[in-house]
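Field log, afternoon session.

UNIT: design team B
ACTIVITY: writing a sequence onto a fixed backbone
BACKBONE:
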C-alpha cells in the first residue's frame, strides 16, 4: 500500500459526510483546487520524506474529488446515470494511464525547455472543453 492510498483509505469514509454538510459541488471544486498545491510541492521535494509527505496530502484530498463525484453524478443526472458513471470511471483510468505515459514521453522529448509546460496546458485546455448538458440544475 502506498502512502497516498493509505490517506485515501483514511479520508474516503468521511468525504460523503463533509459533502452532505457543505455541498457536493463545493467539495469537488475545493478539493480539486487544493490538490494542485501538494502536487506542485511534490515536484519540488528536496528529499524522499518531503515527497512522501506531499503524496500523503494528495491522498488526503483525493476522496473529495473521486468519492464525491460518484455521488454527485448519481444525484444530478436525470437520464444516462450509468453512462455518465462509466464515462467518469473510464476517463479517470484512461486519463491516469495515458497522462503518465504522455508525460514521460513529453518530458523526455521536451526536457530542458519551456515547451513541455505549454504542451501540457494546451492539452488540458482542449480536453476540458466537453459536456452534454443532460444533468439536473446545479445547487
Amino acid at each position: 500500500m502506498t502512502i497516498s492510498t493509505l490517506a485515501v483509505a483514511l479520508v474516503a469514509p468521511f468525504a460523503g459526510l463533509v459533502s452532505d454538510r457543505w455541498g457536493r459541488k463545493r467539495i469537488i471544486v475545493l478539493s480539486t483546487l487544493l490538490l494542485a498545491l501538494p502536487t506542485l510541492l511534490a515536484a519540488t521535494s528536496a528529499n524522499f520524506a518531503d515527497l512522501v509527505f506531499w503524496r500523503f496530502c494528495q491522498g488526503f484530498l483525493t476522496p473529495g474529488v473521486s468519492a464525491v463525484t460518484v455521488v454527485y453524478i448519481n444525484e444530478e443526472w436525470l437520464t444516462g446515470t450509468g453512462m455518465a458513471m462509466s464515462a467518469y470511471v473510464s476517463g479517470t483510468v484512461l486519463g491516469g494511464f495515458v497522462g503518465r505515459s504522455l508525460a514521460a514521453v513529453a518530458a523526455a522529448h521536451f526536457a530542458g525547455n519551456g515547451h513541455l509546460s505549454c504542451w501540457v496546458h494546451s492539452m488540458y485546455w482542449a480536453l476540458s472543453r466537453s459536456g452534454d448538458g443532460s444533468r439536473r440544475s446545479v445547487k
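LOG NOTE: Residues 81-110 form the longest helix (30 residues).
NEXT ACTIVITY: expression trials, pending approval
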